[in-house]
Amino acid sequence: MTVPWRREKKREETATEQAPAAIQVRPAQAHPFRGMDGYVPLHRPEFSLYRSIREAIPVVDAAVLKLVRLAGGVSAACGDKETEAALNEFLRTVPAGRQQRGLQSFLDSYLDCLLTCGRAVGEIVPTADGREIAAVLCGSVADVEVREGDSPLDMVLARREKDGSARVLPRQDLLFFTPYCPSPEEPYGVSLLHSMPFLANVLLKIYQTLGTNWERAGNLRFAVVYKPGEENLDSRRVQERSQLIAQRWSEAMQSSRAGTVRDFVTVGDVEIKAIGADQPIPDCQAPVRLLIEQLIAQTGIPPFLLGLNWSSTERMSSQQADIMTSEITALRRTVTPVVEKLCRLWLRMHGRDCPFTVVWEDINLQDQVEEAKAMLYRRQAEGLATEGNKEKEETP
């Protein structure tokens, strides 16, 4: 007499013996910047999301660096030439942290954080006796919380502690805080990249799919199908032969990867096909260009300055130069109060009370040949005017 549970166990063993070989599937692949998939434009995103956009899309990172470089070049002008020379020497040699010197090094880091995160914080570090400025440092906006002050015109900076609390920082007069493009809804600044997460996520999906398609076309996958046919083989013999074919095929593929040519010989009706190799790789140039155009338009930089030759001409037109000049001027106007605060404090520490002006270097985006021609024409016009005046004076 057969016990029922033993009968069920016997059926399970028979089904296991007759089961075909396991199907091999490749794991799912996705781009490594998963934070963009979870972005919801209903709340303020983390600053790490904007850093991920710059890290994932090189053209966006290059555009931010271009804006930072083009906005550089600052000095101070005073009525007293001795004070002006001393102040400019201080701006040129002030320590900026991490073996960096000069106010320009500080402004590069400050502007980079301002454009990426929508706000930037910094600190003036005085010496122990309080008679000199020891360093000017750029802080991390992720560790600082902005709070309203006693009046709508005041604000204070607080440091976020590990337990979740916030401690108001001392010496608020030595701290810098600059918002980028503040609005009534976002009074503490909006990032230059705030409208990019959705498009950046779509672009990364295209790049990931493009890499997967090239891997499919270059690193082929094969499907080996064994058909027993009319052979009088039981299920166990069929399974053993299938496993043997799979083992020999795997060895042949591993030998090919190692640079050794190895033939695959088998007996029976065996069909070998390349998976997906017959399908062409879709052209992604049009959608990629469309997305990159949208991303670059947010930065305001002409595409060819980033190495993208999309137009028939490679010269910057006067309209594009004017737009770029206005963008850089607005960016300089945003950080000018920071430079003024530093210069004012240095003058007070040294007992000097003379008016000063922050002077930025001229923005030069025009073609050098065209500028030389314009200067030549100007000199020729001045020479002709001088000769005309001489002829009038010589005429009785």
Percentage of residues in strands:
15-25%
Q: How many distinct helices?
A: 10
Q: Enumerate the spans where pLDDT stays under 50 for 5 or more consecutive residues.
A: none
Mean pLDDT across residues: 79
Oligomer: single chain
**Share of helix among residues?**
40-55%
Order of helices and strands, N to C?
A: HHHEHEEHEEEEEEHEHEHHEH
Backbone structural class: alpha+beta
Q: Give me the Rg, rounded.
A: 35 Å
Biggest β-sheet strands, sense, barrel: 3 strands, antiparallel
Features of this protein?
396 residues, alpha+beta, three-stranded antiparallel β-sheet, 12 strands
Task: Describe this protein's structure.
By secondary structure, the protein is α+β, with helices and mostly antiparallel strands. 47% of the residues lie in helices and 16% in strands. The protein is built from ten helices and twelve strands. It has a three-stranded antiparallel beta sheet with strand order 5-4-9. β4 and β5 (133-138) form a beta hairpin. α3 (58-70) crosses α5 (103-117). The longest helix is centred in the C-terminal third of the chain and has 32 residues, at 318-349. The mean pLDDT is 79.
